[in-house]
Amino acid sequence: MLYREAGQFKTDYAADQAIFPILQDRIFLGLFLLLALVAVPLLANEYWLSTILIPFLVFSLAAIGLNLLTGYCGQLSLGTGGFMACGAFFAFKLATAFPDLHIAVVFLLAGVGTAGVGILFGIPSLRIKGFYLAVATLAAQFFLVWVFNKFPWWVNYSSSGVISAPAREIVPGFFITGTQASPVTKYVFLLVFVAILALVAKNLVRGKMGRSWMAIRDMDIAAEIVGIRPLHAKLSAFAISSFFIGIAGALWAFIYTGSVEALAFQIDRSFQVLFMIIIGGLGSILGSFLGAAFIVLLPIFLNNTMLAVDPSISTAIVSHIEFMIFGALIILFLIVEPHGLARLWQITKEKLRLWPFPY
Amino acid sequence: MSETRDRIGDTLLAVENVSLAFGGVRALSEVSFEIREHEILAIIGPNGAGKSSMLNVINGFYHPQDGAITYKGNKRKQMRPHHAAATGIARTFQNIALFKGMSTLDNIMTGRLLKMHRNFLWQALYWGPALREEMEHREAAERIIDFLEIQSIRKTPVGRLPYGLQKRVELGRALAAEPDLLLLDEPMAGMNVEEKEDMCRFILDVSDEFGTTIALIEHDMGVVMDISDRVIVLDYGRKIADGTPDEVRGNPAVIDAYLGVSH
Question: What is the pLDDT averaged over residues B239-259?
Answer without folding.
Answer: 89
